[in-house]
Design the sequence.
């Protein structure tokens, strides 16, 4: 058993077949993998958040792998990714930051192969059924505007007051029918995380 005390896991796959009256071929696919975990520091001020950082590392690998599997592609075929956490009312935003930032990124990058760009993130506090937007950005080049996107997730019974909902999203393409210019996916060098 891992470090995270997981109550529930949910995986969502979204296929966009049509946008603006135009057929999307192949369909644009996005997936989110979500874990609802116990917050070990709910209602407690804890200076050292190492336990949550370790949980983040564990969830980066677990949820990243689930996203790739749900998309049904090879890891290198994933084009964008993102992460987010929704803290129940007895937790702090810093609890979400501890899970998302220090160590979740490295195992997520391993799951999707490479990942030179920063992983976009979102953190917020809310109750059961509250929506959480997981931002998406190109995994290797932040300047690829066609991949500025997001995926909304929610679970009807999570997070409870003493829980944290942690989500990772990934996509095999950018937005359907992108038309705002900028660097294209096929032009990505993926060396500096920007271009």
Sequence:
């Amino acid at each position: 058993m891992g470090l995270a005390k997981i109550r529930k896991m949910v995986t969502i796959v979204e296929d966009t077949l049509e946008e603006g009256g135009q057929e999307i071929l192949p369909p644009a696919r996005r997936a989110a993998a979500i874990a609802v975990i116990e917050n070990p520091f709910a209602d407690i001020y804890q200076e050292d958040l190492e336990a949550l950082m370790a949980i983040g590392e564990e969830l980066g690998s677990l949820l990243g792998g689930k996203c790739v599997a749900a998309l049904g592609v090879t890891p290198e075929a994933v084009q964008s990714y993102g992460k987010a956490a929704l803290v129940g009312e007895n937790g702090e935003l810093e609890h979400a930051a501890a899970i998302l930032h220090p160590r979740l990124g490295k195992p997520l990058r391993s799951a999707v192969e490479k990942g030179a760009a920063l992983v976009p993130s979102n953190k917020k506090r809310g109750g059961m059924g509250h929506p959480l937007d997981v931002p998406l950005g190109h995994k290797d080049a932040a300047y690829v505007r066609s991949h500025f996107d997001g995926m909304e997730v929610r679970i009807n019974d999570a997070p409870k007051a003493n829980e944290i909902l942690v989500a990772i999203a990934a996509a095999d393409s950018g937005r359907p029918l992108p038309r705002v210019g900028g660097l294209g996916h096929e032009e990505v060098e993926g060396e500096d995380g920007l271009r």
